[in-house]
Amino acid sequence: MSEAAARPAAPAEGNPELLSSLDPLLREWLPRQRWFAGKGRPITGFTLDSVTELLPRSGLLHLLLRAHQPPADEGPGDCYQLLIGISDALPPRLAAAAIGHITQGPLAGRTAYEALHDPRLASVLLERLRIPGTLGDLRFHRGPQGEVPRGLMPRPLRAEQSNSSVVYGDRLIAKFFRRVRSGTNPDLELPLALAREGCPRVPAPIAWFETGSKTLGVLQPYLKGAADGWDLALRHLTKEEDFTAEARELGRATGEVHAALARALPTVTCSRAHTEQLAEAMIHRLETTAHQVPALLPHVPALRTAFEALTDLAAEGTTWQAQRVHGDLHLGQCLREPSGTWQLIDFEGEPSRPLAERRMPHPPHRDIAGMLRSFDYAARSLPPTAENPSPWNPAWSDACRAAYCTGYAEVTGTDPRTEPVLLRAYETDKAVYEALYEARHRPDWLPVPLAALARLAEGG
Question: Which fold has domain 227-457?
């Protein structure tokens, strides 16, 4: 028996004392996690929604835990999915995964750690995903496509993200949603719909698990050897190489995904009232963000015109077709396979926005604006040099933006540039979102969206 399973974990099901063992450790560990949404606010308490031991005597506990924080202590709290290993003595290779040594409660004297970093426990998760059925409050499902082989070696991805992912044998990748909410996660819902349409641009879900109405994790094919779109763009930029051919193909891939989503799921017509509500929400985000990012304040009056122009067109009778979209499309959400084929991934949408909002239909211009912003980010992301302390390649960005729209039009028959008011509104809204994100998480990057907002304020 391995070190981590030397003694079975305390019974998980229905054990109200388990939280007393973990509470003091989680108060310190949770706020340090990239995916924890309540940074900067103290944790006042926890509520345990469910506990499941995924395999008897494995030392692997699945928890759904609510963290309570001011100013909404009276509310239900954000719900997080935790995968915790329990060990008598943590081996040195897992020292970096330690949550802490437990000093009280039924698990006193043992060590809690992040289970996804333990190959043995990560393998237990894959084995559980192989088998449809119910375990405690958890329900496991298998999709119509693909297999889940045994014995694939796991390795966690260490890139910063709002969820946690494990690659199995360079054949499969499992994403575990950390902050979970009621409702089907779009990162399961949309790839399943696209798989039914036979769309080859998105990896089809092979298995997934859930509890109640909450999606907890998805298993999909791993695109071995695929290049991340962001890294690929930066390599071209660094070498001063043309990227327009790739941008055009990426536009074609986006168009194919949008067309398949429009076939697979209902579409709606944006009425005048709908457009006015959309513009009002964008104005509200702008004004709220400006109070948190003071550098944005001088541009607020001019940026409002981007949204007011939408309501003006709606008042004149202009309508748009809305459909389900990716919701957070950028170069980092795209992978180019060794064959040259582009794939779109991560359909969860912007994680900080409510799930109901992320599942709302929008004109495809929302995704297109996100990609146009991504080209702008890339063009401003080269490391500074003595000769060029503020590198910025606007010609590269402009060429990629044009090529992307051209590729999109080749597939859909509609060039997004023919709707400049709609495109400007969505690009402005995206840049406002970026400004708030960078101010909170990456202040050094804040000049990138601020520069775009200054341009957009001029009506560019």
Answer: Aminoglycoside 3'-phosphotransferase; Chain: A, domain 2 (3.90.1200)
- In whole angstroms, what is the distance from residue 307 CA to residue 429 CA? 9
Q: Would you state the pLDDT for residue 160? A: 63
- The pTM of the full predicted model, rounded to 2 decimals, is 0.90
Phi, psi (5° rounding) for residue 202? Answer: -140, 130
Length of the chain, in residues: 460
> Is residue 58's pLDDT more than 50?
yes
Over the stretch 183-198, which tens digit does the pLDDT of each residue have? 999 999 999 999 999 9
The residue assigned the tokens 């180019």 is 336
Q: Facing residues of 80 across strands?
A: 65, 179
- Residue ranges, CATH 3.90.1200.10, the chain: 227-457
Residue 402 to residue 372: CA distance in whole angstroms: 9
Query: What integer pLDDT is reported at residue 64 of this predicted model?
Result: 96
- Give all strands (DSSP E) within 256-394, no chain letters: 268-270, 320-322, 334-336, 342-344
- How distant, in Å, are the alpha carbons of 83, 107, 152, 267 from that of 39? 20, 27, 35, 37
Measured CA to CA in angstroms, residue 115 lies from 19, 21, 87, 89, 122 at distances of 17, 17, 10, 14, 7
pLDDT at 10 over 70: no
